[in-house]
Design goal:
The complex is a heterohexamer, with three copies of chain A (257 residues) and three copies of chain B (254 residues). Chain A is α+β, with helices and mostly antiparallel strands. Chain A has a single domain, classed as Ribosomal Protein S5, domain 2, CATH 3.30.230. In chain A, 27% of the residues lie in helices and 30% in strands. Chain B has 254 residues and is α+β, with helices and mostly antiparallel strands. Chain B has one domain: Ribosomal Protein S5, domain 2, CATH 3.30.230. Helices cover 33% and strands 29% of the residues of chain B. Chain B has five helices and nine strands. In chain B, the strands form two sheets. Chain B has a five-stranded mixed sheet. A four-stranded antiparallel sheet of chain B has the order 7-6-8-9, with helices on both faces. In chain B, strand 4, helix 1 and strand 5 form a beta-alpha-beta unit. Classes of the chains: A alpha+beta (257), B alpha+beta (254).
């Protein structure tokens, strides 16, 4: 709960605008900031994407290597997701092992990918029980201006979709594109004094009461959700966020082809 | 997803109906050293919660001059699961601790105790699916048992999906083959949703059904929480808590 | 040496009573508090026991799995003991890796079990040099009112005696009870201003000068000892504690059948 | 050392001459949150540097009542190299962070900001030999971008040895079969050597040749650093920095 | 337990009698930087102890306003044993550090130096059974060498059991096949037992025999400790220490 | 950068003497303090050496065991170097995992040994790709009075030259001396107000502007260098230190025969 302190003036300003149905940067309540997605940004990664969401800047990479499968899934590849809130990205991020914020971020990104069955993990089995492909998704936040959940998720999806399994390097035949089956999209909203705002900036996050991330698939079905912060949401607010996520997901999905 | 988990009579492997809770037993004030405590037995889950505080906040740089911090640590003990779990926090328990802390912070009148910490410890002694909900349910009883001023109690439950059907409160066998898991925490009086997570696959219709089951179950669990406190204390105390809460809540938001 | 601070009034009260040969809770110097032992408390453990010793409350579990033997004992199972002084049990216990107090507790419990040869480790060999049973004893303190050594040891012995080796789960034939050969018992005493008190409460521990734990077997032979705290013991005091432990051990042993 | 790394025309595998740098691109002010930042693309190296401070020094017991601390953390991100690198500092990055901190401390007027810390973060996004030099080059631009008063900028480059010849600025393929590696950082105006490491096998003659190449390259990199700052700010500001620096330096050493 | 460890003449594999110590050499003041130090060679054990303090206590929250803390760290260096030991404290060394700290605290006049820490470092350079006793023996000489006011010196020794016989001061080969190990520390003047551990199998009679051997050996080791200090300092100083101690001790307990 | 604080008086004294071309202990600028090297100091090590350089005291040990080679060097043994600045050696050394000072020390020692090809790592291969000898060099500082680099390096070289590969213990034939091919020597100098001083004491290190360690082989060729501290060196100063190191290296090499 490393919620940074904010000046009362800034807080009042956000509240006052919201009471008139406006946001500080002039966006509509359900409008995302400008997004650019640049894949294959890092050559040393099997897949990578740099995502800029307004002033938020995230770099996601995929590395693959061979390894042993888990005992309870002997014929499926392994997915592992990690997120690093490096101190380069914000004066409030500290060096050291992942804290609760980066762990939550990594786990929410991981669940969205895993539960949407985006990656065909069964196609990542080399020899059942013995050898499978391990797929590491590493999220690095480079510049932090709010809504890390969506920037990171978009980056992870784009990086995975651009990833090449380095079979040749490991003597396992020819390289092939990482087999994916769907393109999940996450949308995050905050509730501030009963207003719902999509894609919050850092300043909006700081004054937010509650946060909800909703991950949907091509059918608009729910694949993952995560509520955060110390405030509450009403059921109708949750429904509104879900429906908005379904709608916006269609647009955002185009960004990652 | 081998075999059917729900039989032709609509009954589940342990004989429950789709919207039926496992047996739940709540006991307040079970530990001597803690300022407040609670024990919850929920199906085969066994959960202990303890509260210390408000007390000096450690580490100091986390102190908030305007309010108390609610710091929850959720932990599974080594032999609470089939494969021994190495002691110490893993990523899953760090995440659960965070979202439970956030939910609890909503109901505690933290502004009464600036610079302090209210520390909540949840120990899962035996795990059988739904431990975060059982833990949060126990924790809010423990907070009340500690006499911490609170807006309300928080009941929590998970709704799931098996055999393409929405069902309440999955047990471990169901969870292993489940298609979705959706833990929530809802304050019945206000409808405030304080915890919500979901993974798996659910349509919007299924989500709505899940909310129907979940909200209903939270009311039942809430009653069990109040009963536990009543058994521990004189009736008027608990009523007093209820009377007082809404007023303070308005103050807060006013 | 995390000896909690105690009010002078409480300290004086204990001292004054002791000078008249009395204890705060009215017990004789060689009297244990009431003990209950509940085995098979946790189903997910191979063996478990919850021990209440007055207001001290300890939960011990045994988990077993297969693993590789140590190089110098290729035909013997492996025993590992751990103790967790979780912050739920006391305002003085802190979260984090085991500190010196929990390490000492775990090692004293471990020595008592190991040196009394309670477990027949040679019967836990599956294939010499390759595969043996590993037996993890985990002690969790739930409520702390003194004398963790004896409560934990009693719990460990009871949990082990009730443990079933999960051979079927690991495809190693039928389940069988963990083979044990003896029932060691530990008794702990403190010295306070030259008085000897068995089974000290937390308040008594706080004013104690020295502590001695003595673990004996069915023959009354010594199997392990551990002196603690910054004070001293005279040889005659040690002998008195040993003899009392031999005598009380017979009674306590009945609790774990 | 299989095959020849330098062909009959004296050209290297990527077509460079023995004393030729890889293409270098420097951009100042690339991050929004940081007080100062720079991006360096150097051959296939991609490096980001950010500066925060002067700000309160943590942990406090490191505070120096007479000056600011320059604390640099050099880090390779997980997918910047062929085999995934586990996040967190390894021994190599601790050493590099130390020597880069020491070099930067020389040029920062640390006595202007007692008790504070100037924190420099270098992230290697893509690594291809020479990352510490690229990182130090980026870091000093980021410091200037942050408006930290400095004596001068620090260019840095590595000289190596392959096929028994001294060559400038090894790329990864050359480095893998290199016979020596000699990273340096030199302030062109004064000839001050602020960083120097070496491993491998070099005669004194080869060392002298390496210094010839290295000093020359540092002048070129220095110009690129200044150009990057000029593109970011009005020209007079950078000139002002240059004018002012020598005087302050004399004050310091007087 | 292969072969016999004690021959027909009652002699052990290294020729010692059952109640005979290994050769012990104690030297005080062997390090320059430490406030006090001692080196003990005990059979094939080589042990170094150093004392710093009384000095500011770190971490601060451990400071005791009524007395100094005695904080001992016992450590085996990586190549002191057959299989390389990874640097850093393991559980065994944490336990040994704790019981040695407790023993030392008894003899130091800690109330003279409130809020401070007396830090004792024991490094086992070469290990051959009995290192905790050699370490404690060295540590108390190092404390005296540091001029820390003490009630007395602490000699320490282990008694063991091999071939069903109680024997003094096991060496490594004996320890490998030993039936019991019983390290003690006894102040000869008062008979105060400050350290006592035991594992293995001993009857009460054997325990009594062990105490006989152990108390006797502690007297001899005590003499060696005093001799080491005498060689280091003028004789009157050591005598002064002895004279003064009992009086202060009475004060303490009065 | 744990540079200890030093009184102004001491600092002035060093500076004043230096301005007259003198050192506090009367040595010439290029003179080492008295050195003693005692090999085979620790029997439990495969090789060891205790080096006293003035009041600096360092103990280095070599342990060897069998292990798996690195993938990119399947037919070569493994060298690993560690340095421990234990708190016994100085009031400024703290307990805990290696800090930046001990890591730098270990890495500079390691590079000197590795880059001079002192150890014949190819002779430490047992079975290519499968089993090789692993050689652990552990440096312990016992008393700290400056110039740890040279004391540690001398100790490491002496320990390695005296080391016996314990083949018999591991069932790999007869023991044999660790095969070494050269005897590298490191010399460290500091620059203080433009004076160059070899083998600095702790007091000299505290007032030094810059430090340079130069490791040379029998031919006087450079094998490793490391510049340290926040000050600068001119190229002519570097050349002077290199040439002095070549010259002094010949003398120091005799100490490790």
């Amino acid at each position: 709960m490393a919620r940074a302190i904010m000046s009362d003036i800034k807080r009042d300003h956000i509240h006052k605008l919201l009471s008139k149905g406006k946001r500080v940067d002039g966006r509509n309540w359900d409008e995302f900031r400008q997004i650019t997605v640049e894949t294959k940004y890092v050559e040393s990664a099997e897949g990578s994407a740099r995502v800029r969401l307004g002033n938020t800047d995230v770099l996601v990479g995929v590395k693959m290597q061979t390894g042993t499968p888990f005992e309870d899934t002997p014929d499926r590849g392994v997915l592992a997701t990690n997120a690093e809130l490096i101190p380069l990205a914000s004066p409030t991020f500290e060096a050291g092992p992942p804290d609760e914020d980066s762990i939550e971020l990594a786990r929410v990104v991981d669940r969205g990918i895993r539960e949407s069955e985006m990656i065909d993990l069964s196609a990542l089995c080399i020899t059942p029980k013995e050898e499978v492909w391990m797929c590491f998704v590493d999220v690095y936040v480079l510049d932090y201006d709010g809504n890390l959940f969506d920037a990171s998720f978009l980056g992870a999806v784009a990086a995975l979709k651009s990833a090449i399994v380095p079979a040749a390097t490991f003597g396992k035949g020819e390289n092939f594109p990482l087999p994916t089956k769907s393109t999940p999209i996450s949308c995050t909203a905050v509730q501030i004094e009963n207003s719902i705002l999509l894609d919050p900036t850092l300043d909006e996050e700081k004054v937010a009461d509650a946060r909800l991330t909703v991950t949907t698939d091509e059918n608009g079905d729910l694949r993952a959700m995560q509520k955060g912060l110390e405030g509450s949401l009403k059921l109708e607010q949750v429904r509104k966020i879900i429906e908005t996520s379904q709608r916006l997901g269609k647009e955002l999905r185009k960004l990652v082809g | 997803m081998e075999g059917k988990m729900i039989d032709e009579n609509g009954l589940r492997i342990d004989g429950r109906k789709v919207d039926e809770l496992r047996p739940i037993k709540i006991e307040a004030g079970v530990l001597k050293r803690a300022d407040g405590s609670a024990y919850v037995e929920w199906g085969k889950n066994k959960v202990l919660a303890a509260v210390y505080g408000p007390r000096e906040c450690h580490p100091r740089h986390l102190q908030d001059p305007s309010k108390a911090l609610v710091q929850c640590k959720y932990n599974m003990i080594a032999f609470s699961v089939s494969d021994r779990k190495r002691p110490g926090p893993d990523r899953r328990s760090v995440e659960i601790s965070k979202i439970i802390s956030e939910a609890l912070e909503y109901v505690v009148f933290t502004e009464y105790f600036p610079r302090t910490s209210v520390d909540v410890y949840i120990e899962i002694l035996q795990a059988n699916a739904g431990t975060r909900c059982a833990g949060l349910t126990a924790a809010s009883v423990a907070l009340a048992d500690a006499g911490i001023p609170m807006k309300d109690m928080i009941p929590s439950v998970a709704v799931g999906k098996i055999d393409d059907q929405v069902v309440l409160d999955l047990c471990k066998e169901e969870d292993n083959y489940g298609q979705a898991d959706l833990p929530i925490a809802v304050v019945p009086r206000t409808g405030d949703i304080l915890l919500m997570q979901m993974d798996g696959h659910m349509t919007l219709d299924e989500f709505n059904k899940a909310m129907e089951y979940g909200f209903g179950a939270c009311e039942k669990i809430y009653q069990l929480q109040k009963d536990a406190l009543k058994r521990r204390y004189a009736v008027e105390d608990v009523e007093g808590l209820e009377e007082e809460a809404p007023r303070e809540q308005q103050d807060m938001e006013g």
